[in-house]
Design goal:
Radius of gyration: 21 Å
Shape: globular
Number of domains: 2
Helix content: 40-55%
Strand content: 15-25%
CATH class of the largest domain: Alpha Beta
Largest sheet: 10 strands, mixed
Order of helices and strands: HEHEHEHEHEHEHEHEEHHEH
Number of strands: 10
Length: 321
């Protein structure tokens, strides 16, 4: 079978929206959908990765913010877009947990997307008010056991990595923690510093300056055992809760049926940018560690994350409504 016929057969197999790949792809700007408002961490990463990929591909990346419904509005827009490589989405932690938290997704999560590749991973930091006595994970577990209905933790919203970091902590420690959701991290951190909240699993970008300034104390990080990215701050797994690990992540997806040669071209450009020294230095303040790879690696990783968090959602009877 000729190469042209092979590509056509692959395209046909993926459905009517599939478009055969052109040798001169891309011929026009590529829309990168961000399912969050402008100005946040995901938006920043998208703009940096898009600028780098645009240089490599020779076409501009147009960032389009489509926020709302826990990322479902923007994600659904891409799921229903033409599978021609000109509309892609930056996905994050929510992409792996929405299938278990959202009773009725507007798209078929397992069949709607084609993975392009991982951009990177980051970890949360367990922080407390430095005026209190909590210096270790064991201190927190002991305090929560002493006050099982009063010890609380904040998050920037239900279903976020900060929220589920606390739920996993509860399960492994065998304690009860009262979840206090906020609309964004800023007010949550303000209330920790004010003494109204006991602790939070904040992003490195959100808490690093406050920790450096002495307004918060970093107790531990959610990275896997032995892999703390912060000097002199242990992982939660190394602090008495073996097996604890929570990663936030960013990756790119296209609509299902996007031709394999287009996916490969996008993946090559993504990996080139993510491996570059300039990109890695620019995302370091965000706590992001670049982890580029093949499309299949993103697919396997997110499927494993989805299964892991579904178990926590079911066990802890978590809802976001």
């Amino acid at each position: 079978m000729s190469a042209c016929k092979s590509i056509a057969a692959i395209a046909l197999a993926f459905g009517p929206l599939s478009v055969p790949a052109r040798a001169d792809y891309p011929e026009r700007p590529i829309k990168l959908v961000v399912p969050f408002p402008p100005g946040g961490g995901t938006d920043l990463i998208a703009r940096m990765i898009g600028a780098g990929m645009a240089d490599d591909l020779g076409q501009p990346f147009v960032i389009e913010n489509k926020a709302g419904a826990g990322t479902m509005i923007g994600t659904d827009f891409v799921a229903k877009s033409a599978a021609d490589g000109y509309t892609i989405v930056i996905a994050s932690f929510a992409h792996a947990v929405n299938p278990s938290l959202q009773p009725a997704l507007p798209y078929n999560h397992d069949k709607a997307f084609a993975p392009i590749g991982l951009i990177g991973k980051s970890f949360n930091v367990l922080v407390v008010n430095p005026a209190n006595a909590f210096r270790t994970v064991r201190d927190i577990v002991a305090a929560a056991k002493a006050k099982p209905d009063a010890f609380n933790y904040a998050s920037q919203g239900p279903g976020t990595s900060a929220h589920l970091s606390g739920e996993l902590f509860k399960n492994l420690a065998g304690i009860n923690l009262v979840h206090v959701p906020y609309r964004g991290a800023a007010q949550a951190l303000t209330d920790i510093m004010g003494g109204q909240i006991n602790m939070m699993f904040g992003t490195s970008a959100a808490v690093s300056a406050l920790v450096a300034g002495g307004q918060l104390r970093a107790v531990a990080v959610t990275a896997p055992a032995g892999a703390s990215p912060i000097a002199n701050v242990p992982t939660i797994a190394d602090s008495g809760l073996p097996g604890y690990a929570v990663e936030s992540w960013y990756g790119l997806y296209a609509p299902a049926g996007t031709p394999a040669p287009v996916i490969a071209r996008l993946n090559t450009a993504l990996n080139k940018v993510a491996r570059s020294e300039i990109f890695q230095k620019r995302v370091e303040p965000e706590g992001l560690i670049a982890t580029p790879g093949a499309p299949e690696e993103l697919d396997l990783y997110v499927r494993a994350e989805e299964a892991r968090w579904r178990k926590i959602v079911v066990e802890n009877k978590i809802t976001i409504n």
